[in-house]
Each structure stands twice: as C-alpha cells, then as structure tokens.
C-alpha cells in the first residue's frame, strides 16, 4: 500500500517562507519522478513543482523563482521550499507519486494518470 504524508503547512504572513515535506510508506522514491500540486477552493488542482530522477525540475510561471523542489531518496522524502509566499499561494498542497514501477515523468496537465496522493497540508498566507 502506498501512503504519502505531507507536513509543514501552516498559516503564515505574506512574504514568509515554509518548507513542506512528503514522506512515503510502502513506496520507494528511487527511480521515480515526484511532484507537488495545490488546489484552492473553487479551482482545479494544479502542478507547482516536479522533479525527476536526475534532479531536473519544472515549475509554472506562478511560482518559478520562489519555490524549490528537492528529494532525498534514501529517506523516501520529497521537499518543497516555498519563499516569498503571497495570498494567492493559499491552497491545500499535495505530493504525488506514480505507481511503483512507473518511471514516466510527472504530468503537469491533466490527465495525471493513476497517481497516489497524500491527504494534503494546508498553506494559508495572510496579507
């Protein structure tokens, strides 16, 4: 069974920083791409960061230069460093993993295939 658990979300003032973590159980990160997504009320889930096995990364224009994704395969953990947070960053943040043995890149547009999702961690940025 794949279980992803996100942590690190909280309420923060505009301009602040947070580091989110996603730890897996029953899943091996090594060899797999990983991603972070977010979903705000009334909006569709959107990708905010992906990382491949070669440490190559992707970010949308909305967060590029402010967010950084990284991974520690030995610890089965993926991180999202979020700097200069703004109210528009308020959302539930989820990490995503492809099925074990699926070594394709993380999709940044739907469909997202059969990804496993964590329960999410809420990030709220106040002005």
Describe the structure.
This protein has 127 residues and is an all-beta fold. The strands form 2 sheets. Strands 2, 4, 5, 6, 9, 10 and 11 form a 7-stranded mixed sheet that branches. It has a 4-stranded antiparallel sheet with strand order 1-3-8-7, with no helix packed on it. The chain is globular, with a radius of gyration of 14 Å. The mean pLDDT is 94.
In a few lines, what is going on in this structure?
The protein is mainly beta. The chain is built from no helices and 11 strands.
Write out key terms for the chains shown.
mainly beta, globular, single chain, 7-stranded mixed beta sheet, about 130 residues, 4-stranded antiparallel beta sheet
Secondary structure topology:
Elements: E1 3-7, E2 11-13, E3 18-25, E4 34-39, E5 46-51, E6 57-58, E7 67-72, E8 77-82, E9 91-97, E10 116-117, E11 121-126
Parallel strand pairs: 2-11
Antiparallel strand pairs: 1-3, 3-8, 4-5, 4-9, 5-6, 7-8, 9-10, 9-11
Rg, nearest Å: 14 Å
User: Helix and strand succession?
Assistant: EEEEEEEEEEE
Classify the beta-strand content into a percent band: 35-45%
Structural class: mainly beta
Number of strands: 11
* Contiguous uncertain segments of 5+ residues: none
């Amino acid at each position: 069974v794949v279980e992803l658990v996100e942590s690190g979300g909280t309420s923060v003032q505009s301009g602040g920083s947070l580091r989110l973590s996603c730890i897996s159980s029953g899943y091996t990160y090594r060899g797999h791409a990983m991603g972070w997504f977010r979903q705000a009320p009334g909006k569709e889930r959107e990708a905010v960061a992906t990382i491949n096995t070669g440490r190559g990364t992707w970010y949308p224009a909305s967060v590029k230069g402010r967010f950084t994704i990284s991974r520690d395969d030995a610890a089965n953990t993926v991180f999202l460093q979020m700097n200069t947070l703004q109210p528009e960053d308020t959302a539930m943040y989820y990490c995503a993993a492809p099925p074990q043995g699926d070594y394709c890149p993380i999709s940044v547009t739907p469909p997202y295939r059969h990804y496993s999702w964590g329960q999410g961690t809420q990030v709220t940025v106040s002005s």
